[in-house]
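FW: tagging you since you asked about this chain on Friday. Here's the raw sequence from the shared folder, copied in full. Didn't touch anything.
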Amino acid sequence: MTRSRLFLLAGALAVAATASLVGGISLLHKDIGSYISSHYREYSRDEDGARYLCSGSPRQVADNIAGYERPAARASSGGAEYLRYDEDIVTVGPEGTSPCSIRVEDLGARYSHGAFVFLGPGFTPGSPAGGAGGSPGGPGGTK
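HL: got it, structure written out here
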């Protein structure tokens, strides 16, 4: 092989490596909201988030969602499952006449204006000390 062909081959390999790196990095960032919207039918939307219909038990649906992307925290209470991600909180449980509903809320919107917003049972910290009731929420600060 000539020297110019080797330079051409090295350049082509560098371009292919860069394309693979960019593609791999983009696959690392999973968007839970996009996953849910592509797998479940949206039936309601408001300023706080979107709601989707699901079938099966809330626990099974939450397990499927968590199988796609592991949540930063998970809790359950009263037949509902709560999945907290870096940018979203996902609630799976009965709502109205639906035995299984998924609600996706943007955490950035919940924390706007510096206000404390309760993220659901089992998530820590609970409400801040000196809050509306003057107590830290519950045992160990968990509401």
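FW: Residues 30-125 form one domain.
HL: agreed, and The helical segments are 3-28, 32-39, 58-68, 107-110.
FW: great, closing this out.
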